[in-house]
Design a protein that fits this description.
The protein has 437 residues and is of the alpha+beta class. The chain has two domains: 161 residues; 219 residues, Rossmann fold (3-Layer(aba) Sandwich), CATH 3.40.50.1110. It is 21% helix and 22% strand. Helix 3 packs across helix 8 and helix 5 runs parallel beside helix 6. The two termini are 39 Å apart.
């Protein structure tokens, strides 16, 4: 009788369909540029790695370090020539677990392919996905990999021309000398003498995960991008939020940072590789590439507007509000059931930045915060303003001002790691993971 029950149990297990899986965004960044247009932090001198920005990368290898927010064994990567002006040739590519610096953990490197070929040519303005690759070193319980970093190596064929990049990576990556060729199969750091605090060409990673895995996109400007946070410290507010989610729910949610330093909701009116601006395309112009094209997005947290009200932007509250309203409608159309969360804009009052800190800007900021709270455009609101503002002065709290990147005095615009920690702590996790315990 026992054997019969065991037989029935096995048959039932075999007949039960496995949980559906699909591609889920695990890491992404927002392309801007072309290099060197942008706002990097703690950037080493790039003249030796990229002597001529117009020629870009030349017969050399970039080893780009990223930290996945959701781990899985099967992954794929997106390469971008979104702001290039000529075809981008990638001769070879690989991925491995970072050991330290540009070195890989021995035995972890996997060769990437593109449609079965070792390389790919990406047209100007286009993007390309790698074929799926299995990371055999990822254990059955992938949560044990949390906090580890991957190194994605790209060998550029010929000259890339103007390079699509994300200026403010807040993460050191590595570059071989021009003309040095393909080093994607070298696990050592020897071929990579030059450092960069930016990402080039690589803008997305997805993992195969159970259907419905939450993906939270954090969208905004330099305060989301992480200005004044710790270089290589992963303490931007989206990073802290991701760790809070992991500590409570394990390896079951992804947090994507879609911030660009200097970005605006409504401006600039146009953005091209020939006429770039440091803050990148407007929120509306980059929404398709940076949000709507990602897989599995379930929540969207938007913190933006202070640059629109700077002396460089000088937009009206109505213009910014309507920009938010229009973007929210597009997001709901693409992702029905998504949770849209508005974040109140933090204070820049008395900032030492020439473009910020004046009373008229603060009045507009407060008016936009009223729109975020009361318009009904957002499903919920998180109050970053209250979490970071000193009620006695209206400025950033004093302990949140000193710069965590280079140890400077701070600018009273960008919170430091203490400020970012407070911001992430102000987000109720139930807003992002409804029904989860």
């Amino acid at each position: 009788m026992h054997w019969l029950l065991g037989f029935v149990f096995v048959m039932v297990m075999q007949m039960t369909p496995a949980a559906a899986e699909g591609w889920v965004a695990s890491w992404a960044t927002s392309m801007q540029g072309p290099y060197p247009t942008g706002n990097p932090s703690a950037q080493p001198d790039q003249r030796f790695a990229f002597p001529d920005p117009a020629r870009g990368a030349r017969e050399q290898t970039l080893r780009l370090v990223i930290r996945p927010s959701l781990w899985g064994r099967q992954v794929r990567f997106r390469l971008s020539n979104a702001l290039g002006t000529r075809p981008l040739g990638i001769a070879a590519a690989s991925v491995g677990l970072q050991l330290g610096g540009a070195a890989l953990v021995p035995g972890t490197r996997q060769t990437l392919s593109f449609g079965g070929a070792p390389g790919v040519t990406i047209a100007a303005g286009a993007m390309a996905w790698s074929d799926p690759v299995t990371l055999g070193f990822v254990p059955a319980e992938p949560g044990l990999m949390q906090g580890r970093k991957l190194a994605v190596s790209l060998a550029v064929a010929g000259e890339s021309g103007p390079m699509s990049w994300h200026a403010k990576a807040m993460q050191t990556s590595y570059v071989s000398p021009p003309g040095s060729g393909d080093a994607t199969a070298d696990d050592s750091e020897t071929p990579f003498p030059f450092g960069t605090s930016s990402w080039f060409f690589l803008d997305g990673m997805e993992v195969m995960a159970p259907a419905g895995t939450p993906v939270i996109v954090c969208f905004g400007d330099s305060i989301t991008d992480g200005t004044a946070s710790t270089m290589n410290g992963d303490d931007r507010w989206p990073d802290v939020l991701q760790r809070r989610l992991f500590q409570r729910f394990g390896n079951s949610a992804a947090v994507i940072n879609a911030g660009i330093g200097g970005n605006q909701v409504a401006g600039p009116a146009s953005y091209t590789p020939e006429k770039p601006v440091p803050g990148g395309p407007s929120a509306g112009a980059r929404l398709e590439r940076d949000v709507l094209s990602l897989s599995g997005v379930t929540a969207f947290v938007w913190l933006e507007g202070i640059n629109d009200f700077s002396r460089n932007g000088n937009a009206s509250v109505e213009t910014v509000s309507e920009g938010m309203r229009a973007a929210a409608a597009r997001i709901r159309t693409k992702f029905p059931g998504i949770r849209l969360i508005g974040a109140t804009v933090t204070s820049a009052l008395a900032s030492t930045s020439a473009a910020h800190g004046f009373p008229e800007q603060d009045a507009k900021r407060q008016a936009l915060n009223a729109f975020i709270r009361d318009s009904g455009v957002f499903d919920s609101v998180v109050d970053f303003d209250t979490a970071t503002r000193d009620p006695s002065t209206g400025q950033l709290r004093p302990e949140m001002v000193p710069d965590s990147t280079v140890g400077g005095p701070g600018d009273k615009l960008h919170p430091n790691r203490a400020g970012y920690q407070a911001m992430a702590g102000a987000i109720p996790l139930d807003l992002l993971m409804p029904g989860r315990r």
